[in-house]
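2024-03-11 09:14:02 DEBUG pipeline.ingest accepted 1 chain
2024-03-11 09:14:02 DEBUG pipeline.ingest length=129
2024-03-11 09:14:03 DEBUG pipeline.predict start
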Amino acid sequence: MLSHDEATDSRYTVPREEEGDKQVSPTASLRASVLFFRAFNSTMARTNKLLDQILRGGADANIPFSGMAQLLKRLGFQERIKGSHHIFFRDGIAEILNLQPQSGKCKPYQVKQVRNVIINYRLAGDADA
């Protein structure tokens, strides 16, 4: 992600179109593409790291809830929220995952449920899509 200084620094922003000027310089376009790629790559790396951590099963009590929700969405699950319950479902998967945050983390037994769904349905490769 860009820091506030990078986001406001003219070296990192794409120039706005002036009236009658519809072209963006190739350098500015390239910079914007590189920044997008870095942010996208960083998100993918975090998602893959979290997926590895879940599949290893060594730290089920230390999985951030927001990361788990993001991972499940990346795996193609849809989310429904009712109170503190975040319900994840996906076509072709019989199990419904009902997760609740606890101090910003996932409950260990719920991480185990998610791990079993990922393994049983072979979803680990879907995180890259």
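2024-03-11 09:14:41 DEBUG pipeline.report The chain has one domain: 4-128.
2024-03-11 09:14:41 DEBUG pipeline.predict end
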